[in-house]
Design goal:
41% helix; 3-stranded antiparallel β-sheet; 6-stranded mixed β-sheet; 487 residues; 5 domains; single chain
């Protein structure tokens, strides 16, 4: 039995099934034993219990969201015979369901509302996501991300997206999952995605609130992706300059200072953006295969796995949209990336997403930003080659590795590659300073790699296989630049 209280303070006893009573009692015993310490457990035993509790917790959470969905599906109907409770089926949400559940679960109304929506979507349209949660392979937060992104999708669309997501999503961060869901939705129903993006633009905002730290304020914003890309590129570029001037400051401090300087007009900056171009190979000029160069599949190339060759650098694009160098295949390709082409390739902006080329050209004309290109495999989205005007090794190698990795390559770490160290997988000088031996690691996981028994192996296809101290293996993947995190 569970005791709750009515508004007048009267105790209300709610019935709880015997099975749940036993489950609660067993869980409390586990908690008490853990807090008391008990007998000494080996690392392997602790890890085993942690994983077991994750599975148990996932099963309980999955059961709860299903019950929440069933509760929310019941609504009062007033007809000729009086007021009746009617079950509309999971997926339907009664207007007042979250109002009842919020105090019962000790939640705010907003949190209860989100949980009700998540439960209804999971139970009605996302069985594989629900099963992954119940199996402990997906936490509730990532399940909520999937449910949120597919909130407006019908049952068949949800099934098609889930088919692409699992088991891939089980080892990915929430941000990667969100990007993948958006990409799959864009492939399945681009019109719906465009309509959602148009509606979302109406929800843009900037707000502030007092920080939990004295003398500080927190800013929150939701802005259109193209403008966000411009703003973030400017903030980050200025922050990097500030970091060079004062190495004692963290990059976060430098970005905060850069934001204020730009808003208050105390600084100006030029930013650089990178085109993520899916490449294939196509003969140019004559029939000699040796003269073949990679070109975007959208412009006549045939799908091919071997697309690591170079097509030459792209000169900065000015207001007139001129490009170089003379005679390169880009003279043929670039004119086709015209503002009239809404489906052209886009700009990959870390933390922002992919911005369509028409907006890229407009941004270049407005801001005078330089545009460089990055070639990606059209089948995997992995960076296969990059060259930027003025960049030469080792800067070019570092740029390649950051673009290939996207984030820290340790399992489930989403720290952006720009904020990571570039580490030799096989320590130098035994290992060469080449892209095939370099990965991005945040400072924390860089230390972990050198200070613990974790081992990493970088494969030719960009995957990194990590072996933990207990001989379990985990795989991280290079950035898929076909994924977008911008609507």
């Amino acid at each position: 039995m569970v005791e709750s209280f009515s508004e007048d303070g009267t105790a209300v006893v709610l019935p709880v099934p015997e099975l749940l009573t036993e489950l609660s009692g067993g869980a409390r015993e586990l908690f008490d034993e853990a807090v008391d310490g008990g007998e000494w457990l080996t690392d392997s035993e602790l890890v085993g219990q942690i994983r077991g509790l994750q599975v148990a917790s996932g099963s309980v959470q999955a059961a709860q969201v299903v019950r929440i969905a069933q509760f929310a599906a019941r609504t009062l109907v007033d007809n000729d015979t009086g007021v009746h409770k009617v079950d509309r089926g999971v997926g339907f949400i009664d207007e007042f369901a979250s109002d009842t559940l919020a105090p019962l679960l000790g939640m705010t109304h907003g949190s209860a509302t989100r949980l009700v929506r998540t439960g209804a979507k999971l139970a009605a349209d996302l069985p594989r996501t629900l099963l992954a949660l119940a199996s402990g392979d997906l936490d509730l937060f990532r399940a909520q991300v999937i449910a949120d992104e597919l909130a407006d999708a019908d049952h068949d669309t949800c099934a098609a997206v889930e088919e692409k997501l699992f088991p891939w999503a089980q080892s990915r961060t929430a941000g990667r999952i969100r990007s993948r869901v958006r990409k799959e939705l864009a492939d399945l129903d681009p019109d719906a995605v465009r309509q959602r993006a148009a509606r979302a633009k109406l929800e843009r905002f900037v707000s502030t609130r007092a920080s939990h730290l004295p003398g500080m304020t927190e800013w929150m914003a939701q802005l259109p992706a193209a403008e966000s890309a411009q703003a973030w590129a400017a903030i980050d570029a200025l922050a990097q300059q500030r970091k060079q001037d004062d190495p004692e400051r963290t990059i976060d401090q430098c970005r905060a200072d850069a934001l204020l300087d730009l808003i208050l007009g105390n600084a100006t900056i030029k930013a650089a953006l990178t085109l993520a171009v899916p490449v294939t190979t196509m003969g140019v000029g004559d029939d000699d295969p040796a003269d073949d160069v990679p070109v975007p599949e959208a412009f006549g190339g045939s799908p091919a796995r071997d697309c690591a060759g170079s097509v030459g650098p792209v000169a900065p694009v000015g207001p007139a949209g001129s490009v170089g160098p003379a005679g390169s295949v880009w003279e043929t390709i670039w004119p086709q990336l015209a503002p009239s082409d809404p489906d052209g390739v886009g700009v990959e902006v870390p933390g922002i997403g992919v911005i369509p080329v028409p907006l890229v050209l407009s941004m270049a004309a407005d801001l005078g930003v330089s545009i460089t290109r990055m070639l990606i495999d059209p089948e995997t989205g992995t960076t296969v080659e990059t060259r930027a005007t003025g960049y030469r090794p080792p800067a070019g190698i570092a740029r390649f590795v950051r673009l290939r990795d996207g984030t820290c390559r340790f399992p489930n770490c989403s720290r952006r590659a720009e904020r990571c160290d570039i580490d030799h997988v096989v320590p130098w000088p035994a290992g060469p300073t080449e892209a095939r031996n370099l990965i991005c690691l945040c400072r924390h996981h860089h230390r972990l790699k050198h200070a613990t028994a974790w081992r990493a192996e970088l494969l030719e296809d960009g995957r990194v296989i990590w072996t933990d101290p207990y001989d379990q293996q985990w795989v991280t993947y290079p950035r898929d630049h076909r994924e977008t995190s911008a609507a």
